[in-house]
From TrEMBL:
<keyword id="KW-0235">DNA replication</keyword>
<dbReference type="InterPro" id="IPR050191">
    <property type="entry name" value="ATP-dep_DNA_ligase"/>
</dbReference>
<comment type="similarity">
    <text>Belongs to the ATP-dependent DNA ligase family.</text>
</comment>
<keyword id="KW-0227">DNA damage</keyword>
<dbReference type="Pfam" id="PF04675">
    <property type="entry name" value="DNA_ligase_A_N"/>
</dbReference>
<keyword id="KW-0131">Cell cycle</keyword>
<feature type="domain" description="ATP-dependent DNA ligase family profile">
    <location>
        <begin position="284"/>
        <end position="408"/>
    </location>
</feature>
<keyword id="KW-0460">Magnesium</keyword>
<dbReference type="InterPro" id="IPR012310">
    <property type="entry name" value="DNA_ligase_ATP-dep_cent"/>
</dbReference>
<keyword id="KW-0479">Metal-binding</keyword>
<keyword id="KW-0234">DNA repair</keyword>
<dbReference type="InterPro" id="IPR036599">
    <property type="entry name" value="DNA_ligase_N_sf"/>
</dbReference>
<keyword id="KW-0067">ATP-binding</keyword>
<keyword id="KW-0132">Cell division</keyword>
<dbReference type="GO" id="GO:0003910">
    <property type="term" value="F:DNA ligase (ATP) activity"/>
</dbReference>
<keyword id="KW-0233">DNA recombination</keyword>
<dbReference type="Pfam" id="PF04679">
    <property type="entry name" value="DNA_ligase_A_C"/>
</dbReference>
Length: 509
């Protein structure tokens, strides 16, 4: 298959807002894919190369040779070129990489060059597209969509599920939890307060519910197989080497093989949680802050798969495996008043809120369902940065004031602006965002000439705010009051940002 065919399909998919039309375009392409190309094509459709590292960054693809007039590159040519680049190392590697880029990009047309560059810089995001691809795979392979979705969640990727789907329904059903292979984490829906969450999970007022402290650290999934330990994030990135304390705790537990779900948190000497930034920076570089794992679920232990077991069984197994100091604090109750005071205590202890959990529900990998319900006293939204303004005074030379958008299917750009903020940014944040938004600038060459720099809507930021007000200035009709940056979120793509409907829900709530 020619790369040009894939690029044309990607463009067609991006150009339509109709889900049905997207599926049709993807299915048409997948119908023409050979077995040896399938994994590469599915991966490319999701905007990801097959190589974890290519050694190439934004700069490596900023100065390109003139494009070819006619398409000639096949999908496998591209895959092989990146495979070769990923193996380049040692002295002279910069030059070798440079000429490999010249060669590959020199054989690409203008449209292919643009696509390749976006993939290399990680600027084509999967998210929603993954779900559409799964639908197309199910259609073309003639297997149930639910089976493809389940396999993708358990194998941690649509690529693996697609391979199995084309091998038949049996192969697909054969994909299960495997120790050492990350699964998509279960996600929570949200409720405005504990009473509402309790009413949903325990409608008769007598059914017991688990209430966990919600820790504001880094989601970790920990796999242990004998001495081998793997630690991955919410987006399934391997961070094992950055969290040796977590590896040590995993090795100390009294079982040989298991998969744990939890949160890694930096604690101060008196046991209070440190700000999220301290935990996050600990993974970026060693700042000397110790990180402690706190687990809240167990998916497998010594040959026993627990994924489909009800919550109370998983928690009993978790309590038997993990000592209390490495578990999140939990209360099991049917009493709404007791739940409420547990939540108040948890927040007073410096945590973010609570997560209420249905004790009869299985672990729904990759799904944001009603079995887990989070309640947070401070409202936050995950928004997308649409543009950024150059700072003045003390912030001269830094990209400072960010324009915030929520997802909006009715808008031609897919996003609607809700306000701006320059609050909550440390000097470190300013330096980081200046570099990041220079990369994302729609026209990188003119970035210094304009006061407002428009960026590709790809960076998610978590914003705290005091409320919403009606606005005639912004097209969504609402604006955020006292918006401030809590943190940048690299574990979420723009497809996972909050929608304008969610934002409006905060007005009602
Ligand atoms: N006890 C807990 N049980 C489940 N999740 C927890 C717990 N403590 C902290 N968390 C964190 O809360 C997240 C669940 O919230 P959600 O599914 O909405 O993901 P999110 O969008 O990353 O959440 P948020 O933006 O609220 O942090 C988990 O991903 C996990 O990182």
């Amino acid at each position: 298959m020619l790369l040009a065919e894939l690029v044309a399909t990607s463009a067609a998919v991006a150009a339509t807002r109709s889900r049905k039309a997207k599926v049709v375009a993807l299915a048409e392409l997948l119908g023409r894919v050979g077995p040896d190309e399938l994994e590469v094509v599915v991966s490319y459709l999701g905007g990801a190369l097959r190589q974890r590292r290519t050694g190439l960054g934004w700069r490596g693809v900023s100065d390109l040779p003139p494009p070819a007039d006619e398409p000639s590159l096949s999908v496998l040519d591209v895959h092989e070129a990146f495979e070769a680049m990923s193996r380049i190392s040692g002295p002279g590697s910069q030059q070798a990489r440079r000429s490999a880029v010249e060669d590959l990009f020199g054989r690409a047309t203008a449209a292919e060059q643009a696509w390749l560059r976006a993939v290399v810089t990680g600027n084509i995001r999967q998210g929603a597209l993954d779900a559409v691809t799964q639908e197309a795979v199910a259609q073309v392979a003639g297997v149930p969509l639910a089976a493809v979705r389940r396999a993708a969640m358990l194998a941690g990727s649509t690529v693996a599920a697609a391979g199995a789907a084309f091998a038949g329904e049996e192969a697909l059903a054969g994909i299960g939890l495997e120790v050492g292979r990350p699964v998509m984490p279960m996600l929570a829906s949200s409720a405005p307060d504990v009473a509402t969450a309790m009413a949903g999970l325990s409608p008769d007022g007598a059914t017991e519910v688990a209430i966990d402290a919600k820790l504001d650290g880094i989601r970790i999934q920990v796999h242990r197989d004998g001495d081998d330990v793997l630690v991955v994030t919410r987006s399934l990135d391997d961070i094992t080497t950055r969290l040796p304390e977590v590896v040590e705790v995993a090795r100390s537990l009294p079982a040989e093989r298991f998969v744990l779900d939890g949160e890694a948190l930096a604690l101060s000497d008196d046991g209070r949680p440190l700000a999220f930034q301290d935990t996050a920076s600990r993974t970026a570089q060693d700042t000397g802050v110790a990180v402690t794992p706190h687990f809240f679920d167990l998916l497998h232990v010594d040959g026993q798969d627990l994924l489909d077991s009800p919550g109370h069984e998983r928690l009993a197994a978790l309590d038997a495996l993990v000592p209390e100091r490495h578990r999140v604090r939990r209360l099991v109750t049917a009493d709404a008043a007791a739940a409420d005071s547990f939540a108040a205590e948890t927040v007073a202890a410096g945590h973010e809120g609570v997560v209420l959990k249905d004790l009869s529900a299985p672990y729904a990998a990759g799904r944001r369902g009603s079995a887990w319900v989070k309640v947070k006293p401070v409202h936050t939204l995950d928004l997308v940065v649409l543009a950024v303004e150059w700072g003045s005074g003390r912030r001269e030379g830094w990209l400072s004031n960010i324009h915030l958008g929520a997802r909006d299917d009715a808008s031609p750009t897919g996003f609607v602006m809700l306000g701006k903020t320059f609050k909550g940014m440390t000097d470190e944040t300013l330096a980081w965002q200046t570099e990041r938004f220079t990369e994302l600038a729609v026209s990188p060459t003119t970035i210094r000439d304009s006061y407002v720099v428009e960026v590709r809507p790809e960076q998610v930021v978590e914003i705290a705010f005091d409320g919403l007000q009606r606005s005639t200035r912004y097209p969504g009709g609402v604006a955020l009051r006292f918006a401030r940056v809590v943190r940048y979120r690299d574990d979420k793509g723009p497809a996972e940002a909050d929608t304008i409907e969610t934002v409006r829900g905060h007005v009602a709530g």
